[in-house]
């Protein structure tokens, strides 16, 4: 979702974030209802639809609004001319970005599309053992139970991570290039001890925890749910004068996310149950309804 990268705060307005979270949950629920697991949920596979008003612009108006195409010459690395017979164009045109910064998007523009079904699969017909989601939002069973087929619950774990990220200015688990064991340690800081059989199989746990499950690092290095929420959701919003999440909503939100990130896949809610949760029904889905009404104005 490039709109986040273009924003100074790297935040959506709160009602926009709620709406996008609800729309994504609805999309995942619909995919699951057809018997499919998406298998690669992350922000990069979420798109915002361009406003239909662009269809009414002439070429001249489009160029006036977004700039004319910029031609970049194609050159060989050795500096030699390109023979016409090879069919290589003389110029290429870099893509234009037609969006806007995330904090400038209003509810009428919060129209989400779930993209890239290239690794989607039907658990009823296919055994999938490999997770293709980015490591920071990959479900833990992909690491601890590599011979157990992935299921709908793997999408729910990733969905929970994305919901947090839509509300925050960064991902729930820190470290895009962090190794699996470091990510597991962060997950334990969030969710508490692993299931006993996973704990016993985690070879590098002694780097972060003692046998009783106590963190070996300083307290300042342990990032709990409350700390991540305060530092990555509330404080950035406050610093940019944006609306923050109230106490009652925070309780409902974290209750949902903890459920979605339950260690065992069978202990997570279905996508349909996510939609029926308190946070969804009281905050996210009403924001989605507001967006839909704005689309038709």
From TrEMBL:
Q: List the Pfam families.
A: Pkinase
UniProt-recorded name of the protein: Protein kinase domain-containing protein
A molecular-function term among this protein's GO annotations: ATP binding
Question: PANTHER family, per this entry?
Answer: OVARIAN-SPECIFIC SERINE/THREONINE-PROTEIN KINASE LOK-RELATED (PTHR44167), PHOSPHORYLASE KINASE (PTHR44167:SF30)
Q: One of this protein's GO BP terms?
A: mitotic DNA damage checkpoint signaling
Residues annotated as domain Protein kinase: 1-280
> Record's superkingdom?
Eukaryota
> Which SUPFAM superfamilies does UniProt cross-reference here?
Protein kinase-like (PK-like)
Q: List the residue ranges forming a coiled coil, or say none.
A: none
Q: Which InterPro entries match?
A: Kinase-like_dom_sf, Prot_kinase_dom
This protein's GO CC annotations: nucleus
Organism lineage: Eukaryota, Fungi, Dikarya, Ascomycota, Pezizomycotina
């Amino acid at each position: 979702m490039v709109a986040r990268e273009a924003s100074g705060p790297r935040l959506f307005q709160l009602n926009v974030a709620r709406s996008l979270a609800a729309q994504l949950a609805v999309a995942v629920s619909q995919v699951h209802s057809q018997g499919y697991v998406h298998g690669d949920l992350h922000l990069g596979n979420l798109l915002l639809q361009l406003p239909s008003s662009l269809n009414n612009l002439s070429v001249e108006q489009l160029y006036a609004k977004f700039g004319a195409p910029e031609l970049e010459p194609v050159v060989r690395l050795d500096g030699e001319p390109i023979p016409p017979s090879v069919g290589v164009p003389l110029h290429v045109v870099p893509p234009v970005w037609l969006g806007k910064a995330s904090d400038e998007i209003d509810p009428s523009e919060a129209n989400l599309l779930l993209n890239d079904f290239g690794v989607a699969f039907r658990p009823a017909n296919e055994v999938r053992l490999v997770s293709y989601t980015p490591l920071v939002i990959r479900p833990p069973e992909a690491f601890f139970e590599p011979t157990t087929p992935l299921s709908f619950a793997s999408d729910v774990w990733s969905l929970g991570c994305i919901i947090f990220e839509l509300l925050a200015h960064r991902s729930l688990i820190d470290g895009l290039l962090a190794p699996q064991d470091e990510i597991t340690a962060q997950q334990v800081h969030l969710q508490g001890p692993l299931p006993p059989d996973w704990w016993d199989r985690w070879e590098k746990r002694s780097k972060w925890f003692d046998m009783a499950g106590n963190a070996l690092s300083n307290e300042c290095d342990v990032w709990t749910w409350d700390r991540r929420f305060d530092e990555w959701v509330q404080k950035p919003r406050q610093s940019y004068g944006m609306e923050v999440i109230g106490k009652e909503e925070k309780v409902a939100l974290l209750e949902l996310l903890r459920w979605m990130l339950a260690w065992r896949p069978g202990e997570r809610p279905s996508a349909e149950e996510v939609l029926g949760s308190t946070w969804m029904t009281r905050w996210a889905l009403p924001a989605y309804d507001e967006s839909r009404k704005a689309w038709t104005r």
